Every structure is written in C-alpha cells, then in structure tokens.
C-alpha cells in the first residue's frame, strides 16, 4: 500500500504555497530523516492548527521514530471517521498495530478494504491483525481475499503469461522488479517459487513458497503447492503437517482432502486415506478417480475383493480410464473376462487417436496384453504389450550407454583397495536391511518373509537413499568435482556420518512399530551399494535375483507408475540386467560377504533353507512365522501385493517361455548372463 500526501483539503486553501512546499519536502524525507520531517510538520501545525497534511506527515514521522501511539493520536485528529482517505487508514492501521492496539488496526483495515477491495496489501495486513487477535477463521478469509485481489494485478498477470510461454528470464525480471517494490508480498514470492521450481531449483522453490505461507497462512494455493514440493523431495512429515492445515481451511474443498489422502498413502497410513476416499464417495459417488484411488488403497491393504469392486466402479463410470483398467488387470490373481476385453477394445478404438489420451491408450494396451495372456493367446498378448511399451518408451528419457558409463565409474571408484582403506566413518546404526535387485525379481517375497520376523518391520520402496545419491550427483553435475571418484573420495568421516544419520532420520516416519530392524525394498539401490557401505557400514544388503529371461520379461510387461524407465524396451532391459550383474559381481570380489544373494528359484524350491540362510546373514534367529509369510497382514504396495498373500508357488518360474519366439532382442542383449544363470559369466567377473 503506497502512502503519501500531496494535496490539502479544500477548507485549508489558506495554507500558503511555501507551507505546502515545506510539507511536500517533509513527506519526501519521512523515511530517511523522520526527525526533520516531524519538525517541519510541527512548524506547519503551529501556523495552521489541525492541518490534515501536516497531521499526516507528523504521524508518519512519529511511527518511524518508534512512537506509534503518538502517531495514532495525530491520525485520529484527521476527520472522516471510517471514511478517512485510504492512505490515512493504511498509516493508522500500521501505527495501531505497532502500538499493540489490534482492535483499532482491524477497524482501520476493515474500512480500508471496503474502500479498496482490489488492493491485496490491505487484505494481507488485515489478515495479520485478525490472526493476532485470535480470529483465525476471519484471518484465513482475509488472506484468500488478498490472493483474489492479487489475481488481477497486471504485473503478476504479465509474469504468469511469460512463464506459461516458457520465457522464464522475462518472468524473472518482472518478479524481481516487483519484489524490489514489495519485498514481503506473498503472491509475488509464491510466483518466484514456481519460477525456481520450473528451473529445477527445488531448494529455492521450497524456501520461497515456505516464506509465502509464513507471511500469509491462509494462502491455500501456495500451501497446496508447498505440499506437492515437499512430497517431491520426500519431506513427508512436513508435507503431512501442511496438508492437515490445508484440510482445515474454512474454504477447504475436495482438492484439500485429495492431497491429504495422497500424503497419507505415501506415509503408509492406508486406513486413514481409505476413510477420506470413502467419505468423499459417499457425497460424490460418480467420481471415477476417487473409485480408482480407493481401489489402490484397498489393494495395498489386501482387501482384494473390495479393490476389484472399486476399480470396476471406476471403469463403469469412465470406460476409457486406462489406469483403472490396468490396476484391475494388475491384480495378479484376477483374470479379465471376454466382456472386459470387448469393453477395453471399444474404449481403445474410441480414444486411440485423441490428443491428450496417450496415458489411457498405453494403459489399455498393457491391460489387454494381460487379459490375452491370461486367456492363453500369447500372440495377441505380445502385440498389445509391445505397443504399450512402444508408446510408453516414447515418453521417457533413458540412455543405456549413459547408464553403462555410470556403472563403469562406480566400479572404477569402489575398488577393493579403496573399500579396504576407507576407514572409520558413517552412521553405526544397523537398523536398515536393503533389499535390492531388479523389479519383479522376487524382492517382495523376500521382504514379506523378513517382515514376518518379530525383529523386522517391513516398510516399502523408500526413495531416500536414491535422493541422497542424486544430491551428491548434482554436485558432480554442477562441476564441483572432476569426476565421480573425486566426489566419493571427498566424503570424509563427518560427512559420511551426517549422510547416514540423515537416511535414518528421513526414514523414521515409515517405522510404525518398535522393531529394531526395518526393510527398504527400493530395488534400484543396487546402484548405490558402495554409498550404502560408506554411510551405513553396518546396514545389511540382500540382493534378490531371478532368472534374467523371466525377470526381464516380467518387468517389460509390467507398467510401473514411475521410475523404472529402462523397462520399456526388451534390449534395454536386457542391457540393464547385465550391468546389474556386472556391478554386483564387482562388489562380491571387492567386498566379499557384504551382500547376501537370494536366488528366487532356490527360494521357491526350498523356502526354509533359503530363509535360514538370509536370517543367518542378518544375525537373526530363525522363526517359523517367516515360513508363513502369507499370513502377514501388513500393507504391501508393490505389483506383487496379492501374490505374497498366498504360500510360495512355482507357476511363474518359466512363464516367459510362452513368449520365447518374440523375445530375441532380450535374449541377445542378455547373452551369456541368461545361459549360465545363476552363475556370473566369466566376462563380467572382475
């Protein structure tokens, strides 16, 4: 809110030109020389008692001299009551606030916002004062009114247009200029946060958006954005706190409930998320996305029958909803009927060429692939799997050569001499049990067996180690180090301790019991075995391995929600498997015994012997409950969630052979890794 006073009311036209000039000069130096401005105003008042411009300048100066109560007294002498000029009301509000007189500040601001409802700064200050007075609901609404007013700000509209057009430099210049004028404007700050996010600077984005909601706690759109940023960076406890606040908004809508449910799902609180979805569906039963989300939660909880019902409710309301069809098909113990196939084919024909429906299209292809596979029609199943993968591959970035080079760099860095001489360091906690390997390798089975032990808590695929590794990689990408080896060697004992403690702290939110050990089943962590050994030297690492043809084919025909970008091409997934075997063979030689390997086929053939072996590696006593893992009712979020709720079976060991005639690219990429399995080819040994 700008303030100033250039003209006197009509009744004071007797003020001389020299007096007006003196007051103009005093107003100009209020900020820099308030004492001089006050003296000039007092001189004017001595000449013309009660002169409003002089009273206003005197009040401004007194507030800046730390005398807000005296400033209020001067402003009270300016007539007009609640119809005082806006600049007087603005100054009165600030003076009353600084004098600790919130009622006067609120009255002034309510009068101001009635006169100027389109000026956001008045609403924001009103919200602040209302909050001080304990009127949180009214304060929230005032913040929302401020945001609404700011939505018509031409500077912000122009900056938003530049961002949407991809001209981030132009938007940055506009927002910087505005911030110089209005450094504490929440709307401008939130937009600067969005700009940072678009540039990929998550740290700055979080800092700015957090500041925006601190300045305006009722800024729901900013808080919604903050929750999403916190989820992206896996800061889930903070995300939950802000999602709870968002849901408590006096104008909270369905969107607030949805984002709260999303955070709860990520935290593993499936029951509470289920309650939110069921409550929303009771009010709006025709929402297919809600039915789909409820299905996801029910599947995780092991309520398979109810999950099937939820997914079918979704596709009944939206027949071309590809993800819901895939979620239904992906229930491994469910077979889709001929009627289901006909409905999916009709939906696919309707949307296949529609712009913006690519995700529905490839989900439908994966779903039809699964349906035809279950029906025994391998040729049609393969055709749909291939088309779904082709379409999905076109949407992701993955470079097999680049990935192989990263594996080369890791091998060259974590040599036996380096591992032997890395010395003390890292966090001494022995809580984590990392289960690594490829997706669809039997890792969920291993986790379920271990989570059935009285000393082990099963969590989920935790992204925290990968996020720590990505943060370190960004330092290399930014040019801080010459190469990967230099980066790793720079990690001294103190930093390794800090990183290990960070991992333990970040994952604490997922631990719901008092069990001393917990599993982290992120399969991709095989890439970070060396880092794990550096920062958590007492952690255990279990490598779940399955026949490469079976594992890779199973991964290729599985559509993953995120992350597994190497799975959408047969040759690429074969190369990935070879790189995995190559790196793990290196660790077997460089740090013997650091990793325990579980061969899926051996586990299926003799569960007790393999279970005893892995428990021995972990230093845990054998418990019969581990053999009855299917009785464990814990939530399981992976694609194998239904399969691990029944005893071990053997029917999936060689299912790939029905598709063998089409798997030439995979077989060629795997080479001798497939023919000598479970041994490691001579050419991949160090």
From TrEMBL:
<dbReference type="Pfam" id="PF13428">
    <property type="entry name" value="TPR_14"/>
</dbReference>
<dbReference type="Pfam" id="PF13469">
    <property type="entry name" value="Sulfotransfer_3"/>
</dbReference>
<protein>
    <submittedName>
        <fullName>Uncharacterized protein</fullName>
    </submittedName>
</protein>
<dbReference type="Pfam" id="PF13432">
    <property type="entry name" value="TPR_16"/>
</dbReference>
<dbReference type="InterPro" id="IPR011990">
    <property type="entry name" value="TPR-like_helical_dom_sf"/>
</dbReference>
<dbReference type="GO" id="GO:0008476">
    <property type="term" value="F:protein-tyrosine sulfotransferase activity"/>
</dbReference>
<feature type="repeat" description="TPR">
    <location>
        <begin position="288"/>
        <end position="321"/>
    </location>
</feature>
<keyword id="KW-0808">Transferase</keyword>
<dbReference type="InterPro" id="IPR027417">
    <property type="entry name" value="P-loop_NTPase"/>
</dbReference>
<dbReference type="InterPro" id="IPR019734">
    <property type="entry name" value="TPR_rpt"/>
</dbReference>
<dbReference type="InterPro" id="IPR026634">
    <property type="entry name" value="TPST-like"/>
</dbReference>
<keyword id="KW-0802">TPR repeat</keyword>
């Amino acid at each position: 809110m700008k303030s100033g006073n250039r003209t006197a009311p009509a009744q004071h036209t007797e003020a001389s030109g020299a007096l007006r000039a003196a007051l103009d000069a005093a107003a100009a130096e209020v900020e820099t020389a308030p004492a001089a401005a006050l003296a000039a105003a007092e001189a004017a008042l001595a000449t013309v008692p009660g002169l409003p411009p002089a009273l206003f300048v005197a009040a401004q100066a007194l507030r800046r001299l730390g005398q807000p109560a005296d400033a209020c007294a001067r402003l009270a002498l300016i007539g007009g009551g609640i119809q005082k000029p806006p600049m007087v009301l603005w100054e009165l509000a600030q003076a009353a606030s600084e004098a600790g007189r919130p009622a006067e500040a609120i009255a002034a601001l309510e009068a101001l916002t009635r006169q100027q409802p389109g000026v956001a700064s008045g609403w924001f200050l009103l919200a602040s004062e209302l909050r001080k007075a304990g009127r949180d609901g009214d304060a929230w609404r005032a913040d929302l009114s401020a945001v609404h007013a700011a939505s018509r700000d031409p500077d912000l509209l122009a900056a938003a247009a530049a961002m949407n057009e991809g001209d981030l430099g132009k938007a940055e210049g506009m927002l910087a200029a505005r911030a110089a004028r209005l450094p504490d404007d929440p709307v401008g700050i939130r937009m600067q946060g969005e700009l940072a996010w678009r540039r990929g600077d998550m740290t700055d984005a979080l800092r700015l958006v957090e500041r925006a909601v601190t300045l305006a706690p009722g800024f729901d759109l900013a808080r919604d954005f903050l929750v999403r940023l916190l989820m992206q960076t896996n800061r889930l406890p903070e995300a939950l706190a802000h999602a709870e606040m968002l849901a408590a908004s006096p104008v909270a809508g369905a969107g607030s409930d949805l984002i709260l449910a999303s955070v709860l799902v990520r935290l593993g609180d499936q029951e509470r998320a289920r309650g939110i979805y069921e409550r929303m569906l009771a009010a709006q039963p025709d929402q297919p996305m809600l039915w789909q989300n409820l299905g996801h939660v029910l599947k995780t909880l092991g309520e398979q029958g109810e999950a099937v019902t939820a997914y079918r409710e979704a596709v009944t309301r939206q027949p071309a909803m590809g993800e819901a069809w895939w979620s239904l098909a992906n229930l491994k113990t469910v077979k889709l009927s001929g009627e289901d196939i006909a409905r999916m084919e009709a939906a696919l024909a309707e949307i296949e060429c529609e712009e913006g429906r690519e995700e529905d299209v490839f989900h439908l292809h994966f779903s039809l692939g699964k349906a035809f596979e279950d029906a025994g029609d391998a040729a049609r199943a393969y055709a749909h799997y291939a088309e779904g993968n082709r379409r999905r591959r076109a949407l992701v970035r993955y470079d097999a050569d680049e990935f192989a080079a990263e594996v080369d760099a890791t091998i060259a860095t974590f040599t036996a001499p380096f591992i032997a001489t890395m010395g003390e360091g890292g966090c001494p906690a022995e809580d984590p049990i990392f289960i690594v390997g490829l997706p669809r390798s039997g890792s969920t089975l291993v986790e379920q067996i271990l989570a059935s032990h009285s000393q082990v808590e099963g969590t989920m695929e935790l992204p925290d180690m990968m996020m720590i590794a990505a943060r370190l990689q960004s330092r290399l990408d930014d040019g801080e180090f010459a190469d990967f080896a230099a980066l790793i060697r720079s990690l001294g004992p103190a930093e390794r301790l800090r990183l290990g403690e960070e991992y333990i702290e970040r994952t604490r939110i997922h631990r719901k019991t008092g069990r001393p050990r917990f599993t982290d089943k992120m399969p991709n962590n095989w890439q970070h075995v060396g880092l794990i050994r550096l920062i958590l030297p007492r952690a255990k690492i279990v490598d779940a391995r399955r026949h490469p043809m079976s594992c890779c084919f199973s991964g290729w025909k599985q559509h993953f929600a995120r992350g597994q970008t190497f799975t959408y091409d047969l040759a690429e997934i074969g190369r990935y498997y070879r790189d995995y075997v190559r790196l793990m063979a290196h660790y077997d030689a460089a740090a013997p015994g650091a990793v325990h390997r579980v061969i899926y086929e051996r586990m299926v053939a003799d569960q007790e012997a393999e279970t005893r072996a892995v428990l021995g590696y972990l230093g845990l006593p054998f418990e019969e409950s581990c053999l009855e893992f299917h009785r464990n009712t814990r939530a399981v979020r992976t694609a194998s969630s239904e399969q691990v709720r029944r005893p071990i079976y053997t029917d999936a060991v060689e299912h790939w052979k029905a598709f063998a005639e089409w798997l030439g690219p995979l077989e060629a990429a795997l080479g001798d890794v497939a023919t000598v399995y479970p041994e490691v080819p001579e050419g991949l040994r160090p």
